[in-house]
Amino acid sequence: MSTEKVLLNAKTLRANQTEAEQRLWYNLRAHRFMDLKFKRQKPMGRYIVDFVCVEHQLIIEIDGGQHAEQAGYDLQRDAWLRGQGYTVLRFWNHEVMHQLEGVLEQIRSTITLSPDPSPTSGRGE
Questions:
Q1: 81-107 confidence digits (pLDDT tens)
Q2: pLDDT digits over 103-120, tens only?
Q3: pTM for the whole thing?
Q4: Are 48 and 6 a contacting pair, CB within 8 Å?
Q5: Within a 10 A sphere around the Cβ of 3, how many other Cβ atoms?
Q6: Can you tell me the distance from the alpha carbon of 77 to that of 36, in angstroms, rounded to the nearest whole number?
């Protein structure tokens, strides 16, 4: 897929977020979560990730029912992203919609357990 096509696809995905993606984005955007910068529908190589915090090399994916049929693709995609140095967290739509605090806590725990890339940054909650 060409770079232009990936960028256009990312723009379309940002404009058509699922309800679960909108709900999580509300909590992640504008440095609301642990004062960290997250981007949404960000192209990475030939893939587009739902959310990424580059500072902590963390990718968050929100999956709907279609992902049950594309497990092989997701495994290949996640392996490539991990090969780029990223941690990939996956949540189902219903987890975000009905257990948002638990999802946020798992994200927080993952960030807290990963080595701080800039120990003098003073960032935190």
A1: 999 999 999 999 999 999 999 999 999
A2: 999 999 999 987 655 544
A3: 0.83
A4: yes
A5: 9
A6: 24
**Cα separation values, 96 from 9, 57, 104, 111, Å:** 23, 21, 9, 18
Return the ∠ at Cα 79 (arms to 94 and 43), rounded to 5°: 70
Q: Which long-range contacts (CB under 8 A, 24 or more apart) does 41-46 make?
A: 41/10, 41/11, 41/13, 41/14, 41/17, 42/10, 43/3, 43/6, 43/7, 43/10, 44/81, 44/84, 44/86, 45/80, 45/84, 46/1, 46/6
Please report the pLDDT score of residue 122 as a whole number: 42
With a CB cutoff of 8 Å and minimum separation 6, the contacts of 20 are 62, 64, 93, 94, 96, 97
- HSE of 23, CA atoms in CB hemisphere, 13 A: 17
Q: Which residue has the tokens 């003098």?
A: 120
Fold of 3-110: Endonuclease; Chain A (3.40.960)
Domain ranges of the chain: 3-110
